[in-house]
Design brief:
The chain is mostly helical and 190 residues long. The chain has a domain of 60 residues. It contains 7 helices and no strands. Helix 6 runs antiparallel to helix 7. About 3% of the residues have low confidence.
């Protein structure tokens, strides 16, 4: 039907059907009357790139200006310093002759930064990583790619589980040592 719509000659149809039957690729050009390809008036080697035309292809200035290339973003000033802090600082300097507030603020900021950073728990990280991998595998199975990723993801999950078991054993040994120290007589749990 496509051949009829494209108005191919009988020779072109026969040539295309032969290519399909042989299982080869379809030709990029099918010449109308014979199997011989016409020889161009000038032939250049295939390996050389085509030369650029002598006439440059420039866009007119109006076409360039119509685009967004010439529009500038508007300047949006930002506050470089907190004016309220500057006012408070100046008041303190004029009242006491010293810059007291600035030193206190710096010390409190350093102390709060140290307090805010808890040591990450590796066991919790591993639990989160296992959960992420399970979710990834579920997404891939929903997309029909489960077979491709199942073995890799399950291997990673088993490695994470093994690491979690090692951490759990270490924690239980530490707790057992703490408990035996607290019990008089030194009886150990078995």
């Amino acid at each position: 039907a496509m051949m009829e719509e494209s108005k191919l000659t009988r020779f072109q149809r026969r040539y295309l059907m032969d290519c399909v039957e042989r299982g080869g690729t379809l030709p990029l050009q099918c010449h109308p009357t014979s199997s011989k390809e016409p020889v161009p008036a000038f032939s250049r080697p295939v390996c050389q790139p085509s030369r650029l035309s002598a006439k440059p292809h420039l866009r007119p200035a109006k076409a360039c200006q119509a685009g967004d290339a010439y529009t500038r973003e508007k300047f949006k000033p930002r506050a470089r310093r907190d004016l309220e802090k500057e006012k408070q600082r100046l008041q303190n300097i004029l009242a006491t002759g010293k810059d007291v507030v600035e030193h206190k603020v710096k010390q409190t900021l350093v102390q709060t930064k140290e307090e805010e950073i808890p040591e990450p728990d590796r066991f919790e990280e591993l639990v989160n990583e296992v959960q992420e991998r399970k979710e990834f595998l579920a997404e891939m199975e929903a997309l029909g790619q489960g077979k491709k990723y199942r073995r890799i993801v399950l291997t990673e999950i088993s490695q994470k589980m093994r690491e979690m078991e090692i951490i759990d054993k270490k924690r239980s040994e530490e707790i057992r040592e703490i408990m035996t120290k607290d019990i008089p007589g030194g009886n150990k749990f078995d």
